[in-house]
Amino acid sequence: MTSEDEFRALIDAKNDRQIAIELIALEAGRGIFDIDALRDDPEGAVTGIDEIAVEYDMSPRDGCSVFGYYRHVAAGQSMILIHPSLTSERDRFTILHELGHHVQRQHRAWANVRYSLPTEVGARLEERVADAFAAEVLIPASTVSADSTWMSARTLAEVYAKVRASRAAVAMRAIEISPEGEQATVVVADYRGMVTFARASGDGVFAPARGQVQPGIAKMIENALAHGGSASGMLDGGLVAASGWAQQDLEVEVALDDSWAYAFAVVRSAQRFGRKPVWGRVDEVECVNEACGAVFAIDETVTSCPTCDAPKCPECARCACERKAGPVCTTCFLEFTPAEQANPTLHECI
Description:
Beta-Lactamase, alpha+beta
């Protein structure tokens, strides 16, 4: 049984995933929830449990962006309330996330440590652990055999086909489980090469912006479409940043998911021996303003922003300066792109 001191050590190490693993083991020992059943059907596994129930609010408040919440009842049945989303993957993750809040109250050693923290610090930690709990239940490390690697596009496509979790959740899982020192970036993109999720492991390869088309990845996706669903090689043109510079000398592996509408990409430096990233200016750049979408050549007619040094779009004058934040997802805390604001089904969340 994990002690309070062991939990404090995990907090100090910022190891939310291991905290979740310990709580899952404790919960399995408590014998109230069947962890395997939770993975297959979270709502069904909770149904009939006296200490907690799941209800759906089919008419949430106007503008409500919260997918669900947990209501603790000390001497009765606690409640998970869900505002149904447009995807079953989202609802499954939400139920498990809220159940993660419930589980954290059931084990004294953890509860004592969590509630000994300052209010805001404890609340943020609880949210992270609830996310880690949901991810660990949905996509356990054992999903991938011991002789395989998570940091492979083909592996990620296979995992996505096995589990009922979002593409972003699968990609994020690869980053969480990647070995220490791994220098790679995992990208989820649609068939056009438009990034819907990207996260880096280490600082060797940068993570491109969501909503931006990556021409090199788009070309590799075309190659994968023509060759059975996967392709690999040098990344033509590199990974393009909003500034108009691109990280060069990169290798990419791409694998289409089972819909063939999206792809997983794992990008690594072609130089494996600690050399610094190689950057170069690109001849053309796509406007960072998704509502504009102009593609323009970088020449003497294009001015640069004195603040961020990025080229200003000649159509809308947008540069790479940080703009006022728009609506964000309350679960993964990523900002919604303009397209996602117009059509929430496009949002891929962990």
